[in-house]
Recover the amino acids of this structure.
């Protein structure tokens, strides 16, 4: 039986945040945007159609919770989120994953999408700790029992 | 009471396809990609969090159906879809809308996102008719009663 694993490219671009009911929630290691990636724990899933309808509904609710978390990260860093961007692309990494990104009109890619845009900027340790704490508080209610 | 209307910028970039249970499904007027835009008929909605959880689950199912339709358009035009890209951005047009786009490794933006990429290419009349027919057949089961 195949065992679930997160693609190494997703792993190296992000840090673990929380195990939610369906997905692993990870903080994208890019201080340019408050950004959470959800990776459903389903072996071989590449498209939404590879999840059951019930799991898709769960993923949708996890995306909304991730949006709350992303807003919390933005607020904690003094840059409140003005718009959420949600995307499931998978053109580079085919494992199903959903991006939830906080955007502002003064961010480095606005109004274009963030994906494939420039190079990530590392978090400072203190900002990362604040971002993690804000995100974890916001995700608390969605954590796997 | 405010009446639902589709933002003129979405209207001018797309053609009507079908009224689904929650959303208006529209064919993006850009022959570079098989591309459907779903616009939930909810006045004032800008983010997923402005829909109820039940409506969000419906939107998710409409996105999967739109994916089937997008694959049908690709097949009808001899360019089968290899990957679906799903996105809710709203950086330019704030009315909540969800993009479902069929991608191929030989398409003009791959592996980058399609949003904000170059200028739309008009459909020829015959290809447009085939695309509409393929999409409508695929969306039949999701149409508003």
């Amino acid at each position: 039986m195949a065992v679930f694993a997160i693609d190494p490219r997703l792993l190296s671009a992000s840090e673990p945040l929380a195990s939610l009911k369906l997905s692993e929630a990870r903080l994208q290691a890019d201080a340019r945007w408050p950004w959470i990636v959800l990776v459903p724990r389903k072996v071989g899933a590449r498209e939404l159609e590879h999840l059951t309808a019930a799991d898709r509904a769960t993923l949708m609710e996890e995306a909304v919770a991730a949006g709350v978390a992303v807003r919390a990260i933005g607020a904690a860093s003094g840059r409140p989120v003005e718009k959420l961007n949600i995307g499931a692309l998978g053109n580079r990494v085919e494992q199903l994953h959903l991006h939830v990104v906080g955007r502002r009109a003064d961010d480095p890619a606005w109004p274009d999408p963030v994906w494939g845009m420039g190079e990530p900027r590392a978090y400072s340790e203190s900002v990362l700790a604040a971002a993690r704490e804000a995100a974890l508080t916001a995700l608390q209610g969605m954590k796997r029992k």
